[in-house]
Amino acid sequence: MTDIQVRHAKPQPKRYKLADGAGMYLEVNPTGSKIWRMNYQQANGKQNCLSFGAYPAVSLALARERRAKAKHLLAIGKDPAQARRLEKLQSAMDASHTFENVARDWHANKADSWKDNTAKNVLHRLEKDVFPLIGKFPISEVKAPLMLDVLRRIEKRGAVEMARRCGQFCGQVFRYAIATGQAEFDPIPSLRGALKVRARGHHAAITPDELPEFLRLLTKHEYSMMMQTRIMIRLMLLVFVRTSELTETPWSEIDFDKQVWIIKWHRMKMGKRKINPRRVDHHVHLPRQGWELLRELHSHTGGNEYLFPNRNDHSRPTSNWAILAALKRMGYTGRMTGHGFRSLAMGVLKERLGYRHEVVDRQLAHLSGDIYGEAYDRAMFLDERKKMMQDYADYLDQIAQKAADAERTTKIHT
After folding, report:
1. CB count in 10 Å sphere of residue 72
2. Are 206 and 336 in contact (CB under 8 A)?
3. Strand partners for 282
4. Which of 42, 102, 154, 412 has its CA 20 to 30 A from that of 177?
5. Beta-carbon neighbour count of residue 1 at 10 Å?
6. Looking at 97, 342, 362, 385, which residue is catalytic?
7. Given the residues 34, 97, 242, 362, the one annotated as active site
C-alpha cells in the first residue's frame, strides 16, 4: 500500500479491508473512519486482532512501526495485546504516582509527628518551589538532572539553605516512594557536590563595647514599635533564650505566683532534634524587670495561648520577623540578630560581670553531655544563675541610664 491509496480509500455501503501485508490491513467503515488492524495467532492457537489506531492520526508509517513491534513481541513469545494492556495499566499507575501525589501522601503520613508550623512550612515549600516544576511527572521518571534543575532554580534566588532543605524533603519523598513500591531510585544523594555549600559562620552580634549605643537607639525607636515587638526585644535582651523559645512560649509555662518560667524540654533545641534523651527542662530565671514586662504583656495577650500570638491567627505563635524588622529599622542589619543577644549576654556576663563560664553556659541551655554532670550543674547553679540574671538586668539599666545622661549632656552643650 501507499499513503495515496490510504488517503483516497472511499467508504462503501459495507465495511472492507485494504491489506498491507504481514497480517496488517486498513479497515474502511461505511461511516468513513479508517482503522489500522492486524490479525495474529496467539500461543494457544486462537486468532486475535490488534488495533493500531485510526488514520490519519496514525499514519501508514506509524502503523508499520507498531506492526513491527507487535511482530517482535510475538517472536519472543509475548502476546502484543497483553503487552498493550500492561502498558496501559503502567501508564495509569504512573499518572496516579506523580511526584506531587506521592509527596502529599508522604506529608500526610509524617504530619502527625511534626508540629503544625513544621507541617505547614514543609508543604508550603513543596507547593511553591517543587510541585510547579515536577509535580505532574511520574515519580519514577524524576532523575538526577531534573531534580538538580529544580534545586538550582531555588539557589539562583540566593536561597542556598532553602535549596538544601528542599533537597532533604524530596529525598524523604523518594525514599517513601521506594518503600511503597512507587519508585526504585532516590536521585538526591547523587546531587552531592553539584549544589552550592552554605557559608557557615557565627550569627551577627554586637560586642559589649557597642551595647551603650544599641540601648540608646533601642530606647529611641521603642516609641514607634508595636507593644508586642518592644516587649519581645526587651525580653530577648534580658533573658537571651533562643528566638523560637521566646516567640513560641505558651502562657502555660509562666507561673506569676511562684515567679517561675520553665521551658519544656521538647521546645528546646535538643528536644526539637529528638536528641535530648534526658528530657531536660530549662529554668529561665527572669529578673525583676522581666516579670514587669510579662505582666504588661499579659494584660494584652493573656487571653491567648501564646505570649506573642500571630496577628492573623491567634491560635499560632508569631515568627521572629518582628525582631529582625525592628533591628533593621535601628540600622543593625547584618550587625545584630535574635541569636546575637545570646552572644552579647555571654560577653557581658563573663567579661564585665565576671561570672564563670559554666554558670553562663547553663543559662544558655547548653547541655554538658554528661548525665551526672548535668544533674549536678542544675542543682549547684540555680541560686547563682538567679543572682546572675538580676545582676545582668541591673547592668543593662545602668548602661542605658549612662547612655541617656551622656546624650542629654551633649544636647545641652550643643
Report:
1. 11
2. yes
3. 263
4. 154
5. 16
6. 342
7. 242
The alpha carbon torsion through 204, 209, 211, 214 (nearest 10 deg) reads -80
Catalytic residue among 376, 387, 402, 408: 376
Residue 366 appears among annotated catalytic residues? yes
Which pLDDT tens digits describe the chain residue by residue (414 residues)?
888 888 888 999 999 998 988 889 999 999 999 998 988 887 777 888 888 889 999 899 999 998 998 888 888 888 888 878 777 766 656 567 899 999 999 999 998 888 787 888 899 999 999 999 999 998 988 999 999 999 999 888 877 888 888 999 999 999 999 998 888 899 999 998 888 776 555 578 899 999 999 999 999 999 899 999 999 999 999 998 888 889 999 999 999 999 999 988 778 765 444 444 456 788 888 999 999 999 999 999 999 999 999 888 888 888 878 888 889 999 998 889 888 898 999 999 999 999 988 888 888 876 544 433 444 444 447 888 899 999 999 999 999 999 888 878 877 776
* Catalytic-residue membership of 342: yes
pTM of the full structure: 0.52
Which is catalytic among the residues 157, 196, 279, 366? 366
Residue environment code for 206-236, b if the CB has 16+ CB neighbours within 10 A, otherwise e: bebeebbebbbbbeebeeebeebbbbbbbbb
> Which residue type occupies 250?
P
Q: Which of 285, 339, 362, 385 is catalytic?
A: 339
One-character DSSP codes across 32-79? S-EEEEEEEE-TTS-EEEEEEEEETTS-HHHHHHHHHHHHHHHHTT--
| Whether 269 is catalytic | yes
Catalytic residue, candidates 64, 71, 269, 350: 269
Q: Determine the Cα–Cα distance for residues 291 and 228; give it in Å rounded to an integer.
A: 15
